[in-house]
Design brief:
The protein is mostly helical and about 130 residues long. The chain has one domain. Helices cover about 95% and strands about 0% of the residues. It is rod-shaped.
Length: about 130
């Protein structure tokens, strides 16, 4: 009777620790992907700004400056939109991964509860 109880508690604890480990690994992976995306964004925006700054200084009149600035804004906007899409994909994958962890956790907890209830019923019958 007590052996069954402690086995159930041990299984529940082990499963909980495994779920926490999966949550940590998933969070770490997500953070790494988001950080990589932000680093790429910053590098691309710096490259665009450097390229266009040089050409703006070479411009001959206000119209040419405005045209080159518009080109810089257009390229920056494209990079930002790509980054938004990439970030949303990362977050969608994160939601899916956390959802799977949650579902697995519910299934495992239900199995532990069933075992505990069975042990309780057996004890009551005895």
């Amino acid at each position: 009777m007590y052996t069954s109880f402690f086995r159930t508690i041990n299984d529940y604890t082990r499963q909980s620790l495994q779920q926490w480990q999966k949550i940590g690994e998933t969070g770490f992976g997500i953070a790494g992907n988001l950080l990589q995306t932000q680093i790429e964004l910053a590098a691309n925006l710096a490259d665009i700004a450097a390229y266009h700054a040089a050409s703006i200084f070479e411009a001959k009149d206000a119209g040419e400056i405005a045209s080159r600035q518009a080109g810089m804004v257009e390229e920056s906007g494209k990079i930002l939109i790509e980054t938004v899409h990439s970030t949303s994909e990362i977050l969608a994958e994160a939601g899916k991964a956390y959802g799977e962890i949650f579902e697995t956790s519910l299934e495992k907890n239900a199995a532990v509860s069933k075992t505990a209830n069975t042990s309780k019923a057996q004890k009551s019958a005895a």
